Structure to design on (179 residues):
C-alpha cells in the first residue's frame, strides 16, 4: 500500500557565485522555506499541498556546495550540486513503529532541469542522525531517496537545489510510504 504526498516547490538560485568556504553550511535551525509538516504513517494518500511558490529574492543569501557533504553520507547516495542554507521543507515524523519506509522524490517541471535533493534526519528514538543525497536516479535527472526503518520520532529536513549553481528548479516534492 503506497501513500503519496505531493508538494509543488520552486527553487531558484539566482546566478550567485557558489562557494567552497567552510563557513557556509546547511542550517537545520533556519526557518524552512515552507511551513513545517507534521506527519505520521496514517497520512491519507495522496496528501497534496498545492499552490506553493517561492517568492522572488528568497535565495539572495549564501549558496551551499553539496560536494562538501560527500564524506557525511555514510553510503546513502552521492552528492553534487548546490542549495540554500535554509531547508526547503521540515517534517516532524511521529510513529509507534521503527519499521517505516519512506520514499522521497522530486519531479522537475522542466525535463532539462537537473534538481538535487539532500535529506538530514534527526532520530530522537535512537539519538542519532543520518544524511541522504540524490542527484540523478536511474538515468533520469530527477532525484529519489528511499529511507528504510525510519524511527518513531524524527525531524526530517529536506533541501531541494540544482546541479548548477545558477539554475532555477520547479516541480513536485513527492513523499510515498509503504506499510
Amino acid at each position: 500500500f503506497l501513500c503519496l504526498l505531493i508538494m509543488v516547490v520552486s527553487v531558484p538560485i539566482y546566478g550567485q557565485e557558489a562557494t567552497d568556504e567552510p563557513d557556509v553550511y546547511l542550517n537545520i535551525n533556519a526557518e524552512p522555506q515552507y511551513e513545517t509538516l507534521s506527519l505520521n504513517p496514517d497520512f491519507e494518500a495522496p496528501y497534496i499541498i498545492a499552490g506553493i511558490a517561492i517568492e522572488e529574492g528568497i535565495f539572495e543569501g549564501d549558496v551551499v556546495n553539496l560536494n562538501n557533504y560527500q564524506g557525511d553520507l555514510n553510503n546513502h547516495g552521492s552528492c553534487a550540486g548546490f542549495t540554500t542554507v535554509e531547508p526547503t521543507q521540515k517534517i516532524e515524523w511521529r510513529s509507534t513503529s521503527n519499521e517505516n519506509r519512506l520514499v522521497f522524490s522530486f519531479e522537475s517541471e522542466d525535463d532539462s532541469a537537473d534538481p538535487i535533493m539532500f535529506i538530514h534526519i534527526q532520530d530522537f528514538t535512537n539519538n542519532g542522525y543520518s544524511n541522504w543525497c540524490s542527484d540523478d536516479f536511474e538515468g533520469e535527472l530527477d532525484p529519489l531517496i528511499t529511507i528504510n526503518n525510519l524511527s518513531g520520532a524524527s525531524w526530517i529536513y529536506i533541501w531541494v537545489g540544482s546541479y548548477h549553481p545558477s539554475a532555477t528548479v520547479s516541480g513536485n516534492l513527492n513523499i510515498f510510504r509503504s506499510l
User: Anything to note?
Assistant: The chain is about 0% helix and 45% strand. Confidence is low (pLDDT under 50) at residues 1-22, 49-59. The first strand starts at residue 2 and ends at 12. The CA atoms of residues 65 and 82 lie 5 Å apart.
